[in-house]
Amino acid sequence: MLKIKTINQQKRNTSKRLTGLGITAIAATSLTLPNLSAAQDAPSVVIGKNNDWLFTRYEFADQSDAADTQATISLLEKANALFQAKGIAVAIAVVPSKVRIHSDQLPADKPLDSYTANKYDNIAKKLASGGVNFVNLNNAFLQSSHRTSDTPIYLRLDTHWSHTGAMVAAETIKASLQANPELKAALDATPEEKFEGNWSKQKVNQRARDLVRLLPGNPSYPVEQAPTFKAARVKESQAGLLGDDNVGITVIGSSYTNKNTAYPDALRFVLQRELLDISIPVDQGPWVGMEAYLKDDAFKTRKPKLIIWEIPEREFRSPPNYKFRDARYQMDNNAWLAKITALLT
Questions:
Q1: Mean pLDDT for the stretch of residues 235-264
Q2: Confidence (pTM)
Q3: What is the largest CA-CA distance in the chain?
Q4: Residues 297 and 19: beta-carbon distance below 8 Å
Q5: Measured between alpha carbons, how far is 345 from 343 in angstroms, rounded to an integer?
Q6: Residue pair 231/270 in contact by the 8 Å Cβ criterion
C-alpha cells in the first residue's frame, strides 16, 4: 500500500482521510526535488539579486523535456475526456514557475532563457486545443500589481506562492469558471455557502523556507514576513447542515494546494462554496494523487460536479513514467491511463 502524505479539508476544522491508498494529513508545505542523475548534478538553489530571492533550478526548462511534457499534455487531454463522459467538469490550473513571474529578481548570470519563458504559453495552447478547460494563471500573475510590490506573488525564500499569490490564483480561477459555459454550469450546480475572509492586520513571520533548507552550510536568512488570509463560514447554512454529501467541488493538487498556502481558503471565499481540498507532495506527482482520490470513498460516494486540478508548471516534465521520480511512484503512462479509465467507467 502506498503511503501518500497529504490531505486537509477544513470543513468544521476537521481533517479528512482518504482510505484507498492511505492518504494522511501533513502540517506544512515542503519541496522535494526529484532524484536527479549525477549528470544533472548542480546546485539545487539559484540565489537571486542581493541574496534576497531564492529559486529552484528545477524550474528552468530546456528542449530535452519536450517529449515528457507532450506525454503529460496527452494524458491530461485523455483524462479530461473521461471526466467529461462521467459528467464531471475539470479545470486545469497550472502554477507558473516562480523564475518567470519574478524573473526580475534572477541573478545576472542566470537570466530567463527563451524556452522557459515560453513554456507556459505553449502548454496552455496545446491543452486548450485538446479540449481541456485551462486556467491561465501566468498572465494574471504577470499583470498583477502585487508582482512588484511588498506583497509579492511568491515567497522570497520558498518555492510556494504567498497568501497574496494564492488569492490572485483563486480570483483568476473564479473568473475562468464564470467565463466558461461548461465550468459555470458545474459551479452553479453546487450549493452556495457564506464565507467571510480575513487578512492579518500586520505581516506575519513565514515558516515556509524550503529553499533555505536546501542551501549548503546552513546560512542565516532573516525571517520573511507576509500578510496571511483565512476564510470562515459566516453561519451554518442548509447546505452545511447536509454535510460532506453536499460538497460539489474538489480541489486537488500539489503542496501549493496545502491549507498552509491559504489557496483552499481563498477559493472558498471567492467562490462562496465549501470544497474538498487534497494536497499531494510534488515528489509523488499529480498522477498518484488523482488515482488515489478516484479509488477513495470521498470520490466513489460523493462524485463532484467540478474538479479544480492544480499542477505546477515544472511537473509537466514528469509524466507517470518519469525516470527521476522515486521508484515507488513511477508507473507506465498507459498503465496509469488504463487505471483511470477503469475508475471512471
A1: 80
A2: 0.89
A3: 58
A4: yes
A5: 6
A6: no
